Amino acid sequence: MLTVDGLRSRYGRIEVLHGIDLHVDSGEIVTVVGANGAGKTTLLRCLSGVQPVTGGSITFRGEPLVPVPAHRRLARGLAQSPEGRQIFTNLTVEENLRLGAFLFTDDRVEKDMDDAFAMFPILRDKRNLAAGGLSGGQQQMLAMARALMGRPSCLLLDEPSMGLAPIIVSQIFEVVRGMKDLGVTVLLVEQNAFGALKIADRGYVMETGRVTMEGPAEELIADPRIREAYLGI
Ligand code: ATP
């Protein structure tokens, strides 16, 4: 579904992605783990089109993605739930969700909203409240639900566990795992390597702008280098 080949990107004169190769097959959950500053967010920003690509290629559903402007990528089936959630705090929960469906005017929007509320019941309870009043975990749920309202075939998730209590993190990861059953392919970027790998099919490890390891998630979890560097075991 998504193939990244030799991807390079830079901020000014400083190159931060030095030729990333990865792929995500239809129906998979793929996790990219790596320390702070490894380039995970930059990779996702290249995929969603808000960060210039200076080399290599991205192919999405058989077509080159780099020439497609960011605002057209959702229509191609690629949605992002960004780092820091970026919800509209002074709009209600429902208004945030409707913005996620801005491409559509059909009756399915109401059904999609019901599906989002079924996935995150707390959002139904708070649908008429300002999103800024939600807890961090609820805001993360809203960011993910809003991205799903765009009916993506592939969802890019940037650090959904960031800053959340462990019990909420488990809930969020369970929901991500459930997206598989909805037919949504997921590329998940996380510093919480253990939680993210546990729900993934495959994983990649990024270090200073390069992929240094890749493989089935259970093999990465069992690898002594990963256990020491990322799992604290
Ligand atoms: P984090 O988990 O902290 O978001 P990350 O793995 O997502 O880390 P990036 O945010 O992609 O890493 O950062 C990769 C490198 O690019 C880092 O060295 C960072 O300092 C640098 N960088 C990120 N954003 C900018 C920017 N706007 N201008 C200049 N350098 C940047």
From TrEMBL:
<feature type="domain" description="ABC transporter">
    <location>
        <begin position="2"/>
        <end position="233"/>
    </location>
</feature>
<dbReference type="InterPro" id="IPR027417">
    <property type="entry name" value="P-loop_NTPase"/>
</dbReference>
<keyword id="KW-0067">ATP-binding</keyword>
<keyword id="KW-0813">Transport</keyword>
<dbReference type="InterPro" id="IPR052156">
    <property type="entry name" value="BCAA_Transport_ATP-bd_LivF"/>
</dbReference>
<dbReference type="GO" id="GO:0016887">
    <property type="term" value="F:ATP hydrolysis activity"/>
</dbReference>
<dbReference type="InterPro" id="IPR003593">
    <property type="entry name" value="AAA+_ATPase"/>
</dbReference>
<keyword id="KW-0547">Nucleotide-binding</keyword>
<dbReference type="InterPro" id="IPR003439">
    <property type="entry name" value="ABC_transporter-like_ATP-bd"/>
</dbReference>
<dbReference type="GO" id="GO:0005524">
    <property type="term" value="F:ATP binding"/>
</dbReference>
<dbReference type="GO" id="GO:0015807">
    <property type="term" value="P:L-amino acid transport"/>
</dbReference>
<dbReference type="GO" id="GO:0015658">
    <property type="term" value="F:branched-chain amino acid transmembrane transporter activity"/>
</dbReference>
<dbReference type="Pfam" id="PF00005">
    <property type="entry name" value="ABC_tran"/>
</dbReference>
<keyword id="KW-0029">Amino-acid transport</keyword>
<dbReference type="InterPro" id="IPR017871">
    <property type="entry name" value="ABC_transporter-like_CS"/>
</dbReference>
<protein>
    <submittedName>
        <fullName>ABC transporter ATP-binding protein</fullName>
    </submittedName>
</protein>
<comment type="similarity">
    <text>Belongs to the ABC transporter superfamily.</text>
</comment>
